[in-house]
Amino acid sequence: MSRYRPAIAIGLTALLLASCANPGVPTAVAGQASAADPSAPPPPPPPPPPPPPPPPPPAAMAPPSLMAPSAIVVTGSRIDGRNVMPRLPAPIGRDKFTATTPNPFKQVAAEPVSTFSIDVDTASYSFVRAALTQNVLPQPATVRSEEMINYFPYDYAPAKSADRPFTSDVAVFPSPWTAGRKVVRIGIKGYAVQPAQRPRANLVFLIDTSGSMQSPNKLPLLKQSLGMLVDRLDARDRVAIVAYAGSAGTVLEPTPASEKGRILGALERLSAGGSTAGAEGIRQAYALASASFDPNGVNRVMLATDGDFNVGITSQDELKGFVEREREKGVFLSVLGFGMGNYNDALMQTLAQNGNGAAAYIDTIAEARKTLVDEATSTLIPIAKDVKIQVEFNPATVAEYRLIGYETRMLAREDFDNDRVDAGDVGSGQSVTALYEIVPVGGTRTSGDLRYAKAVAAPAKAGASEYGFVKIRYKLPKSTTSRLISTPINRSREVVRFADAPRDARFATGVAAFAELLRGGKYSGDMNYDRVLSIVSAARGDDPYGYRSELVQLVRAAKIAPALPPLER
Questions:
Q1: Which residues, if any, are the signal sequence (predicted)?
Q2: pTM to 2 decimals?
Q3: N or C: which end of the chain has fewer CB within 10 A?
Q4: Could you count the other beta carbons within 10 Å of the beta carbon of residue 563?
């Protein structure tokens, strides 16, 4: 037996080496091999294993022959055809909003005049909807009461001519959240320009194609949205496209809107990648708009972005000064916001307000349709600019008042008559609503008398029939001189019961109550979400597009939504 031990040892060693070198090949058990043929020589060692295959190339870096040559990406050096960069995760928690304190009650004896710029932006409503759709309450800073209210159209009497583009509508009714107080509703509706009479549009789409725009609710939704607007234009109009990322460049020179295929093709070829040189893009877009300026048309840059400017000029003051100067030359700016995670609302509001345009936030294709199709003439065509409202309250009938919303639009009293002070614009057919909550003389005030204040002299008897006086100042789109319209707030307009107030007034008040609750409810009295539901449901009225029905669902969602999203595990 001893003579077989060397052979067995050699065989076991060879089998062990073979199994280590090629574990996927089955080997015989050593005992079975020796029993079958104890004198057999050991098997030769197996061939070495093949080398491992090279790692596959990254998914976003396909070989040149497979790359889409028509994809347009704005890079740090130029615009060229290259493949899409790897998709990065969306930033979290970097949205920038300007927090504001709700307007307080003011004593008429000390400060009888309230002055503010109108606001037709609607971005805040879309922010609220986007948050509640994800089953989380919106941040209070995202809620601007006036934008929530003015998201909805109201059936005020239309203006009869473009030369006098407004009518005013005033109503007075009991406050639904605090007994003894009243609500004054001031509504205006702009003149509706008929499609055949609208001016030509010279539009420059300024599109953010930086890496942060890769998410489905950013650049892909943006392209769909602007495509819908292009379909609404006709041969009278021109469209140009500037894209920006690390630097900026012209994607499409001014092109007649009748060449829809060419415009839509340029949009479709855009891809995202790089950093965000937004300021350089704005400069190039304005230069393009100026080069094709139409003195008899509407000249507008439409900025579509998630608002994340991080290359070049990023100072709000510098950008504000630039768009103000271009505004004086007749080129206006509108802002379309997309996506969440790094949205710079503070900057977008600054640009829109100072560029004589509105700021909208596009979170769904339905919102794109509302803003760029159903309300296209309102979005593109101004019928008045620098629109200001000033209300003087009568100390004989009103002890205190507060304006609901418009915190970022407040003006000094002397600004009302100063035509050099910029204010908001109103588009074709747009309605604007402002709500004041007032404490009548003799009612429960929010603050008592001062010990050393002089008593207010008894007012003239004639003034007792009015709560106040409303003045509206505006300029026609091509004018530099303002005009004035005014109307008293007669007590004869007052109704005794909230249920008897005009339906649109009740709905707007319900929206205001909802917004104030989302902001913290400092002045909401005994209002709650159930009462808001009751108000807006009863005042829904004719709702052809379903906007008001959607609000009802959002109020229901707010009742159960947590203040913070759940932690991801």
A1: 1-23
A2: 0.81
A3: C
A4: 9
The string of pLDDT tens digits covering residues 260-298 is: 999 999 999 999 886 665 677 888 999 999 999 999 999
* CB-based contact 99:141 (threshold 8 Å): yes
Q: What are phi and psi of 525, to 5 degrees?
A: 60, -130
Strands 182-190, 166-174: pairing kind:
antiparallel
**347: exposed, middle or buried (C-beta count within 10 Å: 0-12, 13-18, 19+)?**
buried
Half-sphere exposure of 226 (CA within 13 A, CB side): 33
Going 247 to 253 to 255 to 261, the CA torsion angle's sign is: negative
User: What residues contact residue 145 under an 8 Å CB cut-off, 6+ apart?
Assistant: 102, 404, 405, 406, 512, 515, 516, 519
First to last CA, the chain: 65
Give the Cα separation of 502 and 539 in Å (integer). 9
What integer is the mean pLDDT of 302-306? 92
Q: Is 500 helix (H, G, I), strand (E, B) or coil?
A: helix
* Angstrom distance (rounded) from CA 446 to CA 439: 9
- Closest residue by Cα to residue 228 from 368, 357, 367: 368
User: Strand pairing partners for 472?
Assistant: 389, 485
The DSSP H or E segment spanning 171 is: strand 166-174
Residue 56 phi, psi dihedral angles, 5° rounding: -70, 155
Give the burial class of 71: count Cβ atoms within 10 A of its Cβ; 0-12 exposed, 13-18 middle, 19 or more buried.
middle
Q: Which residue has the tokens 């271009």?
A: 326
